[in-house]
Amino acid sequence: MRRNENAPPEQPLGSHGGVAAHLLRRVSGHHGPLLFPRGANATPLTGPTIVSRVEALAAGFLGLGVGVGDRVALILDNRPEWLLADLALLAIGGVDVPRAEDTSAEDLAFVVEHAGCKGAVLAHAGLLPRLGTAATHLEFIIVLADGPSAHTTLAAVEARGQSVLAEDPHCVERATHCVQDNTLATLIYTSGTTGNPKGVMLSHGNLLHNIRSVPAVLALRPGQRYLSFLPVWHSFERMLDYVVLDYGLELHYGSTASLREDFQRVRPQLIAAVPRLFEAMLDQMLGRIGRLSPVKRRVLHWLLDVSTFHCGIRGSLRGLRAHADGTTPRTSLWCLPFALAGLAASFPFHVLADRFIHRALRAAFGGCAELLISGGGALSARVDEALLRAGLVLLNGYGLTETSPVLSVRRPERLLQGTAGPPLPGTEFRILTTLGTRAASGAQGLITARGPQVMQGYWRNPKGTRAVLAEDGWFSTGDLGRLTPCGCLMITGRAKDTLVLTGGENVEPEPLEARILASPWIADVMLVGHAQKQLAALLLPDFEALRRAGHAGTPEDLVRNPTVRELFAAELRARTGRGAGLPAFQTVGAFHLLTRPFSTGAGTLTATQKKRRGVIEERFQSEIEALF
Q1: 575-604: per-residue pLDDT in tens?
Q2: Residue 95 belongs to a domain
Q3: Range(s) of the domain holding residue 589
Q4: Pick from 487, 514, 482, 341: nearest CA to 414
Q5: Which of 459, 585, 450, 588 lies closest to 519 in space, CA to CA?
Q6: Residue 236 pLDDT grade (very low, low, confident, very high; cuts 50, 70, 90)
Q7: Pairing state of beta strands 475-483 and 225-228?
Q8: In what order do the strands lie in the sheet with 184-189?
Q9: What does the DSSP 8-state code read for residue 475?
């Protein structure tokens, strides 16, 4: 694979300084603006400014007694101060424990106490009560903004650090020299779908592997604009922010609450998001089509179908479609004339679809997107196909917090649909059977991975560590998948989410849920039925689609409407079981209609929009019992 000419020089693992030293060396030569705060009148930060401010904050933390291995909670959302404080702590061997500002009081108190934090950096004083009794064990509390608080501010720590540097100019340099690749850098507590969150121990070497490996497959160039809006405490966004800074791209901060405006304000060329966001953008566009007159709606849907046909032929000719069994066959020679004829005949209509439909989808992302990165969850075939059909380069990746996080990513030169690409350099995949032996080539099994990005373990949880991390370095991801003949990874489900019916049949919920979600009337779904005779579902209707179809009323009224309920019953009959060409045990019969979506605020979704299935089943226990 050709090396990106902008890639940093190769540095052997084992060098001194760690993540902060590496990034600060890289940005010190960029005199143009790199960090862009959200405020309209905010001044962007240049490379030298970032270096000087990080050094001052690092000296300030040294003055507060932070040393190698000391944990400090960072309760901040996406903003330059998060990155400055993070790098300052890493520079002196401190261990940051990041968390979002909207973390519940229960989770926040648990994380700060379990990590044994020495201090905390808070976005505002209003977060203090959420720390609970854990606050009494902290040696210092720093509040970002000025306000009615007796605690020091981050600006005061920075000013104090400048005084420390005036007395001892080399104090930070000496501390940085003690940081090795095996030095613990951060404790990231996973959101978790069950139980208390686990503290993932990532070293400087873990993070540096992703920082050095990921850009080689992204074809980045200095000066590109990147919009940071996913939770920065999560390893996916954090790694990308590091990569963007490393390559001299413009790092603009945004928020999921104002994403539409942020896309138009920044017009980013590089966008990273979880699949749910891409799905929402696609559904918004299809929703606008649904509000047109019947004639226009039929014409545009026909153009979409022809465009899909055109792109399907193009993908088959180039061998860029992975089948469910992992194979990637090309069009045979005897079919080639017919394929080329179909490609030529559908091309004008694909151009029309681009003019009237695909262009609107690209405009929703700001109109300048050159590269989309999807991670943090399973990307549905529907969304994958729609974004590639619109001419957007979509790199689907796979990884976990425990792997820093990237294990594999699709390459721009080979956008193999249905896969998460080949492994990163230095990374291995092994697919195991239920007996723990290596699965046959192309067979489905448990995905295990090994590489320099795999975590050191779970903090104060040796039992949890042993359950997923073998002594020889193989990490059990808990996901099911298979490898294509060309070495790309396909994700097929979650091992621990498997629903085992009383007849002994195993059902992976995600593929079946993806089929159900293809319905224009269904906004979300979760299958249930473990240890039952048959499957059932919690369904969230697309209430706007129902209203456009003439069904009036509040969500509560609509879910009780017999006509609406029969509509959903018919959808399930058509998309599951024999009606969809599937085995009979994959029939979804009974269902419960929800009136509001799952959410992070309600605790039913993780920060990366994964369903907390155990929490949902507990929350809707009576409704689920009624289904059976």
Answers
A1: 999 888 888 889 999 999 999 999 887 888
A2: no
A3: 499-627
A4: 487
A5: 588
A6: very high
A7: unpaired
A8: 152-153, 140-143, 119-122, 71-75, 95-99, 184-189, 199-203, 457-458
A9: E
* Rounded CA separation 619/214 (Å): 39
Query: For residue 567, what pLDDT is reported?
Result: 95
- 534: CB partners within 8 A, 6+ apart: 501, 585, 587, 589, 590
Q: How many domains does the chain have?
A: 1
526 part of a folded domain: yes
**pLDDT band at residue 148, thresholds of 50, 70 and 90?**
low
Share of the chain above pLDDT 70, in %: 95
pLDDT band at 49; cut points 50, 70, 90: very high
Q: Rounded to whole angstroms, how far apart are CA atoms 67 and 94?
A: 6
Whole-angstrom distance, CA of residue 102 vs CA of residue 528 = 29
Instruction: List the Cα angle 471/484/468 in 5-degree steps.
Output: 20
The answer to the question of residue 261 being in a domain is no
Residues facing 72 on adjacent strands: 96, 119
Establish if 159 belongs to a structural domain: no
pLDDT, tens only, 540-554: 999 999 998 999 999
Residue 357 per-residue DSSP state: I
**Pairing between strand 140-143 and 152-153?**
parallel
Q: What is the pLDDT of residue 524?
A: 94
Q: 350, 307 in Cβ contact below 8 A? A: yes
| DSSP string for 118-169 | SEEEESSGGGGGGGGGGGGG-SEEEESS-SS-SSEEHHHHHHHHHHHHHH-T
Whichever domain contains 534, its CATH number is 3.30.300.30
Whether 146 has a pLDDT exceeding 70, the answer reads: no
Number of neighbours of residue 485 by Cβ within 10 angstroms: 12
